[in-house]
Fold this sequence. Notes:
Blueprint: H1 21-48, H2 51-79, H3 91-121, H4 128-149, E1 155-161, E2 167-173, H5 177-206, H6 211-238, H7 246-256, E3 263-273, E4 276-285, H8 291-298, E5 304-313
Parallel strand pairs: 4-5
Antiparallel strand pairs: 1-2, 3-4
Amino acid sequence: xxxxxxxxxxxxxxxxxxxxxxxxxxxxxxxxxxxxxxxxxxxxxxxxxxxxxxxxxxxxxxxxxxxxxxxxxxxxxxxxxxxxxxxxxxxxxxxxxxxxxxxxxxxxxxxxxxxxxxxxxxxxxxxxxxxxxxxxxxxxxxxxxxxxxxxxxxxxxxxxxxxxxxxxxxxxxxxxxxxxxxxxxxxxxxxxxxxxxxxxxxxxxxxxxxxxxxxxxxxxxxxxxxxxxxxxxxxxxxxxxxxxxxxxxxxxxxxxxxxxxxxxxxxxxxxxxxxxxxxxxxxxxxxxxxxxxxxxxxxxxxxxxxxxxxxxxxxx
Length: 316
């Protein structure tokens, strides 16, 4: 009886993403700092009657919640990384957190718009000096948080020779969408802080009290635009709507250039990690070639971390 290799020879891990420990730790610090500043701004806005400052504080409260969600997502993805229930790993927990954060941003934009329009219609007295001081502190805190979260929203495109002697290519964006959502929240806060400072100084120097609610409206628009962009990008990943990604064209190029003639009859590609993709490709060929033959050719692209190939024989 012929001895066959054990199934261990073909088994492999489904943990495709190594996580982001530095981002997780820094985001945790940002949550703490944001929560402290949130309380200060809401209290200051209420006491000193500044809509821009109060809106910034409530805005920051939603960010504290969203940033906390980001931290929980990192922890959950790490905790359940080896759980067999997750067919392609737990990375999408982080993406789901980013999507949820974007929804919170849209809600914040709506609240900012409502409160600002209300204050524009019914203006009230603002204690400018105190409000300006708190807004400046808020901006400094936001800039510090942004520095903590600055990250690799970068991408890579290139090739190198691996120890097996074959040239391997990587081509794709390596965004951490969870970290990006946290970063957008902090930048949105910084922008609204700047607008609040401009509005308060304008009101103090020129008596233009209407600038305070107007800047709140402008801030709401900025937050909404950022939120929609984040919703779009994270939603595409969650819905596996990335068949227009560059790696899809690269798969087709590899098969077209193969020494063994084959035609793609079915192709599915989806993301399983930052810059990492899985693919299922069904080929039709009249040649006597194995799935491993084509898998080795596709492995030239390093972002393909899980490849399944089906061979269908074309009748002569």
